Amino acid sequence: MKITGIETMVCHARMRNWIFVKIITDQPGLWGWGEATLEWHTRSVVGAIEDLSTLLIGEDPRRIEHLWQMMYRQHFWHGNGIVRGTAISGIDIALWDILGKIHGVPCHQLWGGKVRDSIRLYCHLGGGKMEDFYETKINDAGRFGDLALAAVEDGFTAFKSMAVPETMALEGLKPILYAESCVQAMREAVGDDIDIMVDCHARPSPRMGMLFAKALEPYNLYFFEEPCWPETMEDIALIQRSVKTPIASGERLIGVHGFRDMLEKRAVSVIQPDITHCGGLSEVRKIAALAEAYRVAIAPHNPQGPVSTAASIEFGFSCSSYIICESVHSDVPWRNEVVTEGYTLQKQGRTVGPNTKPGLGIEIDEDVVKKHPFQQEILQRSFYKDGSVGDW
After folding, report:
1. What is the pLDDT of residue 289?
2. Rounded Cα distance, 328 and 326, in Å
3. Counting beta carbons within 10 angstroms of the beta carbon of residue 68, is it exposed (0 to 12), middle (13 to 18) or buried (19 or more)?
4. Distance between CA atoms of residues 319 and 268, nearest Å
């Protein structure tokens, strides 16, 4: 059995281009689907996949670990960068899809069988504009409350928002009050039975991240995400030790080595590897094994397309430390036209049951993909009030 082709298919889905990876074999009707979506780097990732394909054409797709090592090591520059890591991830996911199809079982059965009966999903409410709050004192806070209620009415028992605004390295009381008012509005709207998460998007400085974490501690967040840059891991660890709120991070880390540093520093209670960036299903399983040694929970970062979601769910059914999965369900109205899925969704409670089809249990409709060709994403620009460059 040999790999005869590796194709990329780009599908524009509003704020990002989904990059689907199709690995074709010499066995009739046998192929695998992966995803390598990386916002604002579509051409780079497609090019990296083309480069890596020269290592894989003619190889046996069942030798997944062997092929992963080739992709990571056999070009001098190890696959630690985000573009190369994403390209490896997309290919690796597709290889596991093929192996499941060969054996006629879902991927989670290849990894020891299911460890749970269902996986809880959460949605993302987005973020507000702090200047609105300054003008009206209630607009954004009220809007967050409305969005929170809408998520619960849609069946979710957990949701995340970007209630923490963009801030300079040090600012006064206003942004703290803004974040407090938004989280308070969400908590009052949905009560104590719903889990609320706040994503800082790593925008605050370490000191501002600490101030936000302290201010939001009374609202009993499920977790507080990326309070500062992952490059300042010691500061994330300091925040973790300073509040009772569980701290989460990891979506920007590539490979097991990045997570080793995070775990050794006891920086987080929740790791958030992105399966389409961190090295694919092969690498996330190694990351999970390391996290298990530290008794740290796993909640994958997953704002991408449907193959990413299927891979995240398959992984979740085989990983005992897995607690919840990020879910995108309303980014584009035609999302369900692109893919058929093997797992079952329970709208009330927003949980999914195990996939029962071979591999990832999904199939991509290539004709629908062709209706939404590549469009250049608009690079996000963010500036502070003095004109200096901020983190988006």
Report:
1. 97
2. 7
3. buried
4. 18
The domains of the chain are located at 3-105, 110-362
For residue range 106-123, what is the model confidence (pLDDT) as tens digits?
999 999 999 999 999 999
Confidence of residue 139 (pLDDT cuts 50, 70, 90): low
State the pTM of this model.
0.95
Q: How do beta strands 339-340 and 270-271 pair?
A: unpaired
CATH fold for domain 3-105: Enolase-like; domain 1 (3.30.390)
78 among known catalytic residues: no
Task: Tell me if residue 301 is catalytic.
Answer: yes
For residues 192-231, one letter each, b for 16 or more C-beta atoms within 10 angstroms of the residue's C-beta and e for the rest, the string is eebbbbbbbebbbbbebbbbbbebbeebebbbbbbbbbbe
Superfamily of the domain at 110-362? Enolase-like C-terminal domain (3.20.20.120)
**What is each CA distance from 27 to 32, 157, 255, in whole angstroms?**
12, 44, 32
The model's confidence at residue 138, banded by pLDDT at 50, 70 and 90, is very low
* Catalytic residue (choose from 277, 301, 329, 372): 301
Q: Which two tokens stand for residue 307?
A: 């193959």
338, pLDDT greater than 80: yes
369 touches 7 (CB < 8 A): no
The answer on pLDDT for 128 being more than 60 is: no
Angle (CA) 167-171-177 rounded to 5° is: 85
Q: Choose, from 201, 257, 329, 372, the residue flagged as catalytic.
A: 201
